[in-house]
Amino acid sequence: MDHESPLYEDLFGIPWLDFNLSTVLMTFVSSVIVFIICVLAARNLQMKPKGFQNFMEWIIEFVKGIINDTMDWKTGKVFLPLGLTLLTYIFVSNILGVITIGVWGHTLWWKSPTSDAAITLTLSTMVVVLTHYYGIKVKGFGEYAKDYVRPVPFLLPFKIIEEFTNTLTLGLRLFGNIFAGEILLGLITKMAFIAVPFTFVSIIPMMAWQGFSLFIGAIQAFIFTMLTMVYMSHKVSSDH
């Protein structure tokens, strides 16, 4: 099975501007799924939640717990929508390529968008940029800038380097775990099509790996959201 993805090259006449069409497709699919989930959970709200509303409120409380573990709630409550969006979107994106894979003409179309480093690094870059924005908004530029020379000024270069390493590690950690899972799932699927005996032999490892990948997808969504709140607390909290 060929895992090459289609590229739309030379878009708008710009030679270096190209898009991975399967990644664009799956990013859109993930967004639609998360939107539908949230709409269904918010319909017919009741004082005594039950069913899907109860599940969504549990997720909200879970994200609240993440924020409370990293910063004061009075400061961090504004980040609840961000945390909820990251957790749900990344989890849905992680499991799309685990549930099934779609190949058409030797090209992988249906996959997890988070198995593309461009998506995960974009997410991590947006998160780090947001931490700087809210750091300046909450503390003011002067006080925010002083954090880079505390407790001693010679730490400034190291703190600048840390911002880049945080961006890379946050994005590449998510990408590496999801990409590796899809590659192994693809190898097991390829083995199933070699011959009939291999089809039956590969069913058990495929189901086992899918279950494990669901767990990994949930853990990686949690880790990404948790680290986002940790980085945010470093920028907006006086004591961390």
UniProtKB/TrEMBL annotation:
Main location: membrane
InterPro entries noted in UniProt: ATP_syn_F0_a_bact/chloroplast, ATP_synth_F0_asu, ATP_synth_F0_asu_AS, F0_ATP_A_sf
Top-level taxon of origin: Bacteria
Transmembrane region(s): 20-42, 78-105, 117-136, 183-206, 212-232
Compartments where found: Cell membrane; Membrane
Transmembrane recorded as keyword: yes
Membrane-topology annotation of the record: Multi-pass membrane protein
A Gene Ontology term for the protein's cellular component: proton-transporting ATP synthase complex
MF-aspect GO terms: proton-transporting ATP synthase activity, rotational mechanism
Record's protein name: ATP synthase subunit a
Species this protein is from: Gracilibacillus ureilyticus
